[in-house]
């Protein structure tokens, strides 16, 4: 009888150790970065037709350039479907012709990190403050829309055991219609937290949520920009 009890205790102990080992391996396996591929989907802006198209370019500026070509292609295709002939694509570092307006988009992050924040709060706040201070009259409204739509990052430290989905774009508008170039720069950042309940599925969920916020903010900013240009008979 005593031997049977000892054997049951031993089996229970082994099962407990095995469960703890699985949890440890799961945690270690998830203590990493999960990169996602961005997509932009929305209805075409049929009423936003411009006389001259705006020059667009995108650049993968992420540290981890996993699936870079797919990411860039998705962003180009998505924006082209929304804005049609009102935009034309160019290489990111190509010189902008005089008389044109250009939008340069840097993809800085579209990923989930396990318990780690990518973007400092102070960076976002300082970037908007600096941009608002120097924004030319033609672009004050666009920058204001970007500023009011920004997603504030949580003030508290992120606890371990959570995936932090971060999506981060840097937008630069270059206006070369009159004299020297006028430039405005601002970030669009969103952060979403998910508990590590389902491992990598939770990571993907957090990234998809953050990208959904960022992509909608991007489209709202671009809508405002196209409306302003149309009113200026661009």
Could you give the topology of this structure?
Elements: H1 2-30, E1 33-35, E2 54-60, H2 68-83, E3 87-89, E4 101-114, H3 121-134, H4 140-149, E5 162-175, E6 182-195, H5 200-231
Parallel strand pairs: 2-3, 2-4
Antiparallel strand pairs: 1-4, 4-5, 5-6
Helix pairs in contact: 4-5
Summarize the structure in short.
With 234 residues, the chain is of the alpha/beta class.
Pattern of helices and strands:
HEEHEEHHEEH
Mean pLDDT: 82
Shape, principal axes of CA atoms: globular
Number of helices: 5
Q: In percent terms, what proportion of residues is strand?
A: 15-25%
Structural class: alpha/beta
Distance between the first and last residues' Cα: 91 Å
- Low-pLDDT parts are 18-31
Q: Which range best describes the helical content: under 10%, 10-25%, 25-40%, 40-55%, 55-70% or over 70%?
A: 40-55%
Rg over CA atoms, rounded to whole Å, is: 23 Å
How does this model look, in words?
There is one protein chain. With about 230 residues, the protein is of the alpha/beta class. The protein has five helices and six strands, in the order H-E-E-H-E-E-H-H-E-E-H. Strands 1, 2, 3, 4, 5 and 6 form a six-stranded mixed beta sheet that branches. Helix 4 runs antiparallel to helix 5. The chain is globular and about 55 Å long. Mean pLDDT is about 80; it is low at about 20-30.
